[in-house]
Design goal:
alpha/beta, four-stranded parallel beta sheet, 13 helices, 287 residues, globular
Amino acid sequence: MAAVRYALYHGCLIPARAPFLEKATKLVLDDLGIAYEDLKGTSCCVDPTTLRGTSEHAWLTLNARNITLAEDRGLPLLSQCNGCFSNINEANKVLQEDDELREVVNEDLALVDREYKGTVEVHHLVGILHDVGEKAIRERVKVPLTDWVVASEPGCHLTRPSEYSPFPDARYPRIVEDLASWVGASTVEYTDLIMCCGNVVRRTNADVADKMLGDLMAAIDGAGATHIVTPCPTCYVQMDMGQKEVVDKVGLKAPLPVLFISEMLALAFGHGPDELGLRYHRVPVDL
């Protein structure tokens, strides 16, 4: 069977605010022999807290257009972002299952010479990394992360809405914990595992966002974690950049380093901090 090749969708946040996360992702995909090509010409996936609340039809149509770009290449779409994955995956499932809605959306897409067919699937980066399997991941490790005690922050949109999630345990996903253990780290559980990091709340009420992040950080610190690992770039930004606002409020001795899932794997695979751009993290990453 031929190896799967993916159309890599970049979204908005990573290219605009954290391109070093894309660098780590591509290094890890290359190391594992996972083929991909950049999906060009895409638009925003449409944050569900903004435009979708105003126009469900616009949300579906814009995501359908993004999917058609992958369909043109005959490739499954691969997202590095929880929010992008949740949006595009849900839109794809809805349109695949509703002939009438698909016809309505295609009427609009015809205005820009596009047609949604529903012929490709949507994947999350963390899912395909996990699917590689424990044996293949362990074989690639050059620098075991044996001193790390990892707390996972899976993020809100990785497994929600649960009816469209491909992950088996939608409420308590342990996919990050598996990957962390395969590269030599130990992991911890904490009480607020599935709570929101507060990022989207910051747009309207920074005090509430800080309270949400502070509660999350207190729980993680109390569990004895040394590092936080997330598959969500939005959680990464909130937790890496926002800790300075809450570290004193919740009594943390020091901020905890936060890594994107591909950064953790890239470090274990032997890539150095300079190659990965770890200098761009607000909280220094202790290796």
